[in-house]
Amino acid sequence: MKKTSTQKTNKKKKEADVLTKGNPWVYSETVKDHFLHPRNFMKAGEEEKFQYNGVGMIGSPVCGDVMKFWILVDPKTEKIKDARWRTFGCASAIASTSVLSEMILRNGGMTLEKARKITPNDIIKELGGLPDIKYHCSVLGDKALRDAINDYYRRTGQYDKIEPEGSRVIDKVLKITEKDIEKAVLDGARTLEEVQEKTKVGLGDPTCIPLVEELIRFYREKYNL
Question: Fewer CB under 10 Å: which end of the chain, C or N?
Fold first, then answer.
């Protein structure tokens, strides 16, 4: 039996009450507010209608938590004019990403240069604090945002501005990483041509193609795809 929107809201309120009542992990009112009323959340069915020119994803839909971030950048000013996000995480992860989306859209939109410098500490400060044990939840959003910024630079041919993080670079000309290949496979690419369509890998550095094919086989086996 499907739950009504009222039942879902009541459930969220009960969860939010647990965050502040009789729990050693004390959450701020700001965290509670963003958990109950997330800003700029990408609702089901909105993805096809939302205009964006950069999208980033952290995590694996097959084996763990996923955070996805969409951004619309003004090419003239390189300011983020609109943004959406989606995650299936805990209250801290939801609140952290919700407040991050507000931060980058404030005052007409943040520049990409400034947005990519946002740290988990900046997000936690904006939330009025998070329990130490929940610190990792604030990391998902800023990583997904930086991935979306890299995607924008790739789409617009500004490869010199791409800043890969925490992953081996496969195409050294276009700065496409091992993580980009994994993401393409998880997003449905099964052949070299399909991965190239999503990432452009090998177009900048054709010598990396044998390694790309090896990685495609590896990730397909890893995730049983």
Answer: N
Known catalytic residues? 63, 137
Stronger pLDDT, 173 or 19, i.e. the higher one: 173
**Is the separation of the CB atoms in 96 and 138 below 8 Å?**
yes
What lies within 8 Å, CB to CB, of 114 at 6+ separation is: none
35-48 pLDDT tens trace: 778 899 998 888 88
Which tokens go with 94? 């939801």
User: What are the DSSP calls for 133-163, one per residue?
Assistant: GGTTHHHHHHHHHHHHHHHHHHHTT-GGG--
80 three-state secondary structure: strand
Q: Do residues 118 and 138 lie in contact, with contact meaning Cβ atoms separated by under 8 Å?
A: no
Cα 114 to its chain centre, rounded Å, is: 17
Residue that the structure tokens 């839909």 belong to: 61
Q: pLDDT tens digits for 121-133?
A: 888 888 887 666 5
Predicted TM-score (pTM) above 0.85: no
Kindly report, residue by residue over 179-191, the tens digit of the pLDDT: 899 989 998 999 9
Q: What are phi and psi of 45, to 5 degrees?
A: 90, -10
Residue 102 confidence (pLDDT): 95
Domains of the chain (ranges; CATH) run 25-161 (3.90.1010.10), 169-222 (1.10.10.1100)
pLDDT the model gives residue 119: 85
105-143 CB burial, b ≥16 within 10 A, e <16: beeebbebeebbebebeebbebbeebeeebeebbbbbbb
